[in-house]
Amino acid sequence: MWLFVEDQRSGAFLYAMLCGLIIGVLYDVFRVMRAVWCGGRIRLFLDDVLFCVLSAMIFVVFCFNASLGVVRLFLAFGTLFGFFGYRFSLGLITVPLVKKLKAFVRPYFVSLCCAVKVRIEHFSSLRYTQARISKICNL
Q1: Residues 6+ positions from 34 with CB-CB distance below 8 Å
Q2: In tens digits, what is the pLDDT along the chain, a chain of 139 residues?
Q3: Where are the alpha helices (DSSP H) in the chain?
């Protein structure tokens, strides 16, 4: 499939934009994970590497299916248009929305975790004494 006919090129371009949209959603998944779970510089680096590898794999599989493995420039531009189109439309509201949701849910989650911790401590104090716990730990 070295030469595309005009209708095949436009269809492939639209599919490339869809591929870019999927990569944009994947990017937002990583952004939401960063917003919810804080991590250090190493986690940030590993997330970036994982995103780059996954998005490259998605693009390569798409190019293989669309044009038998030949990377066409219009497919790359279509993917970029789809990614940036998603990023600067729906992508602008996802992380602020998740941060607001996190701020709303966090007090309930903290109180739930404290209640569970109290129950676990109460159960462990009934079940095990300090001597038994140290004996188990020494084994």
Answers
A1: 44, 47
A2: 445 566 677 888 899 999 999 999 999 999 888 877 777 888 889 999 999 999 999 999 988 888 877 778 888 999 999 999 999 998 888 888 888 888 888 788 778 878 888 777 777 666 656 666 666 666 6
A3: 6-36, 41-67, 73-87, 91-127, 130-138
